[in-house]
Structures are given as structure tokens and as C-alpha cells.
Amino acid sequence: MAQAQARSIEARLEEAVGLAQAIHLDVVRAEIARIARPRPASLLGSGTVANFRELISENEIGLVVIDGTLSPVQQRNLEKSWQAKVIDRTGLILEIFGARARTHEGRLQVELAALSYQRSRLVRSWTHLERQRGGFGFLGGPGESQLEIDRRLIGERIARLKRELDATRRTRALHREARRRVPYPVVALVGYTNAGKSTLFNRLTRSAVTAGDMLFATLDPTMRRLELPSGRTAILSDTVGFISELPTHLVAAFRATLEEVTEADIIIHVRDAHHPDSEAQAQDVLAVLGDLGLADPALADSGLDGAAEDPLIEAMNKIDLLDPAQRASLENHALRNSQTVALSAATGEGCEALLALLDRRLQSEIHRVRLDIPLSDGKTLAWIYRHGEVLGRRDDGEAAHLSVRLSDADLARLRHQQRLH
């Protein structure tokens, strides 16, 4: 079921079905319920609740997913009426994240989000939650209610998780600092879930990261070396997929995951050019990036044209699925816009153009420097020839005196290497 949104309601329903199938739920029926005025007790009107009660009973459905936000009272009332488990969009996405998280940090973040959500679901609805005996519950102990015990235990676990996550973030910050000392530029892939980020990641880095035609195939950030046409090396980061109406619990919990994006030199916004709601999905992604101070959602309408300092590159993916007229139109748009590339991560079409664009962008800050390198240091000399443009060289028997064009990142890396010698 879905509520009316600015985007296509049919596409919204299809996305909800995809979310359910992402954790291998067997979707028996998918229905659109139009809501003129949300009911505080049940969200849906009484007639709609009755109609669904009959459908659920006839099909022996055990789980109902509402693609929206349910209050604890609404969830409880619908479960009583339908005699089935009911979860909302937040609960479903939490289930997916819980099933997919692989790294220690990812699991901590999911548990933190789930506990924050669960704490909001604790209501006085069962007899075992009534006060047991004596006291006002202010001091805990035998006088506190089961509800208050549950809340306290959840609160203590949340506090422990936050401490563990803080330690994990400090470790991640140390890793980023290490990368700055040997500074490869960082390129981050972002995009709506199922836009093809992991497939593109695998194509560009020749890796085998999990990629599939399902929502949230990737949850934990993955980083690999990326070799550019010029011979330079960058680090490519694959990130969690974005989605509309991401639960607030998850926005906060996965902030650390998105920190990799804020540190990137270039961000590749991967879009599913074949999806009917591609523009709406782009707005959702840019809104989150805007919250991180990385993009203006208005850029989606302008095609990301313009400023060279903008860290975004737009990769219009899945052109192999477009009809010839759509594909020609998109490729013409990419030709007019220097920061847009039309490609197919599945077939590899356009990927060389993306790598060439990355190379140009990363070479935009080039400096001409004079270097004196001992002739005995063949390793450093080879590295300079591989990463820079040698404009002139004079040898005096002991050292090679070079005039070289190097990028900021490569110059910093070279200076760090020289300090280590």
C-alpha cells in the first residue's frame, strides 16, 4: 500500500514490493490504498480496514507491510483487526539492513537504529507492562513497571552502542588520515538504491563486490584501487544506496557510513536512466547530499551543468535498456554537459569516457615543480614518470634534475615518500 507522493504512485508501489522481496518475502498481493484523511487510530478508513481484513483472511496472509509511517497505536490496532503482523516502511527497511550488514560497524549501526525505533514502539498495551508493586518508578528496582525496565535496558544498550560506534568512527578517521599522508584521491559512488553502483564499481575496479537486481544489495562501504588512463591511482568507494523517506533513525545511524562521501575528492552520482522516476530519485539523493553540505538539490533540474568546483559527476546508467530514441537523446545531453556521462555498467559502454573524465578532473590542479632525485633512487624516478609529466631532465652524475607537472595529490604523496627515505 502506498500514499500519494509527488512521484508516480505505481512506481512507489513497485519499490515497496522490491523492498519486501529484498529480504525474500513472498508478496501475495500489492494494493494501493488512497488516503484522503489519515485516521489517528488506524491510518486507513474503517471501510478500507474491513476490505483488507477480508483479503488478508482469505489469502491467509501473515505479514502486512504498510509503505508509510505508522504510529505504535495504529500498528497495534491494525494487527488486532487483521490478526496479522503489521510493519511500516521503517520496520521493513530496518529488517533489510539487519539482514545485509556485514561489517562490525554496519551491524552496530543497524542495531542502534533498530533499538531507537523499538524504544518508540514501547507502549502500555499489555497487562505485563502494568506497574507491579509500590513506588513511582523514579528509582527503578522492584517498584518499576516492565515497560520502564524495557526502556531502561534499551537505553543502556543504546548508550553502549554509541560508545562503540564512536570508537569505530575514530578508527575510520585514522584510516582517512593515513590516506591523506599517502594521498590517493578518493572517488565515491552515490545513488538511489538499485541504480547500479555496485555493478559500476565492479566494472571500473575489476572487483567482485556483491551486486544484484535488488534494493540495498550494498550496505557496508567498500573501497578498491582504481587505475586511471593516465596511470594515476585513485580510491573508489561504493556506498549504501539512498532511498526516499529514509527513516530518521537510519539517517542518524548511518552518518558514519556517509562520512566517506564527505571526504571524497569527486562524487559520482549514479542514476538509473531507465527508471520512470529517475528525476525524483535524483532529487532524493541530492537532498541527502545537500544535508551533508555536498550538493544543491536544484542541480538535478539543471543537469549538474556548470561550476568546475562542483564535486559531482553524473553517470546516467543502464543506457542499454533504453529505446534508440531515448538513448540518442540522453547521449546528446551528455555531449552538451561536460560533467555527465551516459553509460552501461552491465555492458561497459561509456565506462572509458567516465574514467577519462575522472582523469581530467583529478588533473585539474596541476603544478610545475623542479625536483632533484638521486640517480640511485630508480624507484622514485620511475614513479615520477608514471604519475607526472616530465617536461625536462638534466643529470649531473649524482642526481636527476627534473621539471615535472604533478597534481596536488601526487605532489603531496611524493613529498611524504621523500620524508620516509
Describe the overall structure.
The chain has 421 residues and is an alpha/beta fold. It folds into 4 domains: 88 residues, GTPase HflX, N-terminal domain (Rossmann fold, 3-Layer(aba) Sandwich); 65 residues, no CATH class; 178 residues, P-loop containing nucleotide triphosphate hydrolases (Rossmann fold, 3-Layer(aba) Sandwich), CATH 3.40.50; 55 residues. The protein has 15 helices and 11 strands. The strands form 3 sheets. The chain has a 6-stranded mixed β-sheet with strand order 4-5-3-6-7-8, sandwiched between helices. Helix 1 packs parallel to helix 4, helix 4 packs antiparallel against helix 5 and helix 5 runs antiparallel to helix 6.
Any idea of the CATH class of the largest domain?
Answer: Alpha Beta
By CATH, the superfamily of the largest domain comes out as P-loop containing nucleotide triphosphate hydrolases
Helix content: 40-55%
Number of domains: 4
Identify low-pLDDT runs.
Answer: 1-5, 124-143, 298-309
User: What is the tally of beta strands?
Assistant: 11
CATH architecture of the largest domain: 3-Layer(aba) Sandwich
- Tell me the β content: 15-25%
The N- and C-terminal alpha carbons lie at a distance of 64 Å
Largest sheet: 6 strands, mixed
Number of helices: 15
Q: Structural class, from helix and strand content?
A: alpha/beta
Shape: elongated
Strand order of the largest sheet: 4-5-3-6-7-8
Label this structure with key terms.
single chain; 421 residues; alpha/beta; Rossmann fold; 3-stranded antiparallel β-sheet; 11 strands; 16% strand
